[in-house]
Amino acid sequence: MNRLTSVQRIEVANDRLGGQDIVSLVLHSDAEKLRQTEDMLDRAQFQKAVQAILDAERVYILGVRSSAPLANFLGYYLNYLSPNVHVVTASGEGEMFERIVAVKPEDCILAISFPRYSSATVSAARYCREAGSTVIGLTDSVLSPLGQNADIVLEAKSDMVSLVDSLVAPMSVISALIVAIASKREQRLARILTALEHIWDEHNVYEKQEGGNEH
């Protein structure tokens, strides 16, 4: 199943749809993946991942192709919480290795890959692990190519038998990571957000809403 081409995935997806209500089918499928992820995610591994990120001198987040939005989302919020965060979304191995060539044992790598697994991400994770860095793999199985090249594995369900990869469960795991890290760095986060609120107000970053709510 992990080796299906894009065309084959479309054909399988169309067979599964069979005239059903697409909205209900997709939402129910994503809800089931969230339930399965809650059951399968190892809480001890999750806590190790949180601590590894907190202890790291530098944090590298690797995610290419459909995993790139996940990497960027995590990087956006982690920048508020950690002083040295690098998001690497280059899809070519050459450019990716240029970004991670200086990794060292004090660094933490969070690599994201789901079927069909990115060879660039897996190769980069292997390189970082051999360099002594702590590698966290966010993937669908400890037996996946990324899972076998990670020190800590965070498992999340992602249905690949469709044209669009379901990233709902991986995104929820990432959100949980952000919340857990924020709870450990509450004072730092409060200082940064207080300063940012003044900047946002001064430059009208957000629309003013009646009652003071901003979105």
Write a compact overview of the structure shown.
The protein is about 50% helix and about 10% strand.
Molecular structure report:
- The chain has helices spanning 6-17, 22-40, 43-55, 68-81, 93-100, 119-130, 168-184, 186-202; strands at 59-63, 85-88, 108-112, 134-139, 152-155.
- Strands 2-1-3-4-5 form a 5-stranded parallel sheet, with helices on both faces.
- The chain is built from 8 helices and 5 strands, in the order αααβαβαβαββαα.
- It is α/β, with parallel strands linked by helices and 215 residues long.
- It starts with 5 loop residues before the first helix and ends in a 13-residue tail after the last helix.
- It is globular and about 55 Å long.
- Helix 2 packs across helix 7 (168-184) and helix 3 (43-55) packs across helix 7 (168-184).
Feature tags:
215 residues, alpha/beta, 5-stranded parallel beta sheet, 8 helices, 52% helix, 11% strand
The number of helical runs is 8
Q: Pairing-aware structural class of the strands and helices? A: alpha/beta
In order across it, which strands form the biggest sheet? 2-1-3-4-5
Largest sheet: 5 strands, parallel
Radius of gyration: 19 Å
Give the H and E element order.
HHHEHEHEHEEHH
Number of strands: 5
Mean pLDDT: 87
Question: What general outline do the C-alpha atoms trace?
Answer: globular
The amount of helix comes to 40-55%
N- to C-terminal separation?
Answer: 41 Å
Q: Spans of 5+ residues with little confidence (pLDDT < 50)?
A: none
The fraction of residues in strands falls at: 5-15%
